[in-house]
Amino acid sequence: MRILNREAVAESLSHAECIDAVEAAMRAVSRGDTIMPLRRYMDIPDHGGKFTLMPGYLGEPCTFGVKIVSKYPRSPDSPYGSHVGAVMIFDSEQGIPLALMDGSELTAIRTAAASALATRILARADAATLAILGTGTQAQHHVQALTCVRPITEVRVWGRTHAYANRLVRRLALPASVAARVCDSARRAVDGADIVCTTTSAAEPVLEGKWLAPGCHVNLVGAAIASSAEADVDVVTRSRFYVDYKASAMDQAGELLAAIRDGVVSESHIAGEIGDVLAGRVAGRRDDEEITVYKSLGVAAQDLAAAHAAFRNAESRNIGVDLTWD
Q1: One domain, residues 172 and 238
Q2: With a threshold of 0.90, does the pTM exceed it?
C-alpha cells in the first residue's frame, strides 16, 4: 500500500491530469457504473465540527474506497484548512488496499478539476474573465484548474477580508499575460465576468442572479448541505442548471432546494448531470447568451478516480512510501 502525504499528492496529480480523471468518473456516474451512498455527517458536540464519511465504488478504474474528513471552522491562515482527512482506495478484484493519502489536498485538486471540467463543456469558448468569490485553498486551486481549460486573461478576487484577498492574488503566481486584481465587493468582481466561481464557506448567498451577465458560466462550489446557499434563487431561475449527481443535488444542493421550496422551480429544472452532457444525452450550452450553472457537491466517484490516478502516478514516479500489507 502506498502512503501519500499532502506534498506527495500534489506531486502525483496535476490539475490537468485530474480533470481527465474526473471526466471519466462523471461519465461512469451517469451511466450507473458506480455505487455511491450519499455523504453522511456527524456533528462533533461542543466544538462546531463535523465528521464526514463518503464511501463508494467505481467500475473503471475498478476500485472502491472511502474518504473520511473532519470539517472545522478555522481562520483562512490556518495551516490545516477547513477540511482535514484521508482517502483510502482498494483493488476491487482482491480487496487489497492500494493507497492511503492526504484527503485535503486530493479534495482541493479534484473539486477544482470538476469545476474546470464543467467549465470546459459549458462555458463559452472565448470566456476570458474569471471572478473568484472566496480566498481560501479552493479559490487558489480553481484559478489554477480553470486556466487549463479557458484562455483566462483576467482574474478578479473578492473575499470578506481584503487582506486575505490580496494575499491570494500574490500567491497565484500567474503569467504576465493574466491580470489579477482584488475587488471591494462581490458585485464588482462578478460584473461582466465570463466565469464565476463561488468558493466560500458562506451559509447565506454572496452571489445574486441579477449581477450575472448574459453568457456567463457559474460554478457553485462552497455550500454542500441543504441548509446553506452561496447563491440566491435568481441565480437558479436565470440559469440552465447542471449537477454532478441528481440524487445528491436533491438531498444537499441548498441553492436548488431553496428555489424548489419557494415554488419557483421543480426538480425538472435540473438540465442534467455533467456525465449526461459528456455522453451527449443532454445538451450543454445552447447559445452565447445563455447563463449556465454547475452545482458542485462532490461525489465519491470523483475522489476514487482522482485517488487512483494519483496512486498510479506515484507508483510510476516513485513518490511516497510503499508499505507492505500482509
Answers
A1: yes
A2: yes
